[in-house]
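May I ask you to comment on the folded chain given beneath this request?
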Amino acid sequence: MALSRRAIVVLAAGLMLGACAGAKTVTDDRGRPLEPLTVVTASGDHQFMVEIADDEASRARGLMFRPPLEDDRGMLFQFPAAREQSFWTRNTPSSLDILYIDPQGRIVSIAKHTTPYSEEPIPSRGAANGVLELRAGRADEIGAKPGDLVKHSFFNN
């Protein structure tokens, strides 16, 4: 069966549009890719756009040497297995709220208003495979508490 020239043009245009639509990536002002994440608390659903740290290099670098996060931004650290996690804020110039999250997306614990530039370990106090860093004070502003749900494709929820 031969296709007409018009049918070929329409088919090619449709394929190009589909490829372009699927390739759209949201980025920050420096071109870093961002993904949507929702924290569900008693006060409602709170939307964030997060940078993903899912390999050793990006997890080690984290938010070091970076300006303070905007209210709707964060960084989600992803680990292959749930275990006790421990973070520090070495070379991080701003205070953070650090939310430790289990594989189902439940908040295990929250370290609020961390000390900038500190090498003091901040333990999760429970098994976590996700860690969400937000601007200091955001956890209280949205009413986040242990047991609240974090929705993202990384978690089993």
Q: What stands out?
A: The chain has a mean pLDDT of 89.
